[in-house]
Amino acid sequence: MGQDPAPGLGQKALLAKKFARANSKPTISPTDQMQSPCTQKLSEAKQRHYGKGKPASLAQSFVAIRESSGASSNPGSKADF
Questions:
Q1: pTM (whole model) above 0.90
Q2: Which comes out higher in pLDDT, residue 36 or 79?
Q3: Residue 19 needs a FRET pair 20 to 30 A away by CA distance; which of 32, 44, 56, 68 works?
Q4: 12-56 pLDDT per residue, tens
Q5: What distance in Å separates the CA atoms of residue 24 and residue 14, rounded to the nearest whole number?
Q6: Contact of 62 with 81, CB cutoff 8 Å
Q7: Distance CA 42, CA 49 (A)
């Protein structure tokens, strides 16, 4: 007739909104930072590997490829990368 098919739906959404606002902090477990010895060793190795690396410029790679492959065929043309 004139009633909502789910009269509690609006109330449920309101309560969910209030609950989300009250618990806006992310849940952090005290064990989140704990790692197994194997995981810790792998993580340290990855950090060392990435720490040694130097950022490569992609533009330099394109220039080197262009100079080695076809610089003599079209000396006046410049390609934007």
A1: no
A2: 36
A3: 32
A4: 888 888 877 766 667 777 777 788 999 999 999 999 988 887 767
A5: 16
A6: yes
A7: 10
**How far is Cα 12 from Cα 18, in angstroms, rounded to an integer?**
10
For the chain, give the longest Cα–Cα distance: 84
Which tokens sit at 50?
């990435």
Side chain identity, residue 52? K
Residue type, 55: P
Residues present in the chain in total: 81
3-state helix, strand, coil in the chain (%, to 5): 55, 0, 45
What Rg, from alpha-carbon coordinates, does the chain have?
30
Written as six digits, the tokens of 76 are 């006046």
36 three-state secondary structure: coil
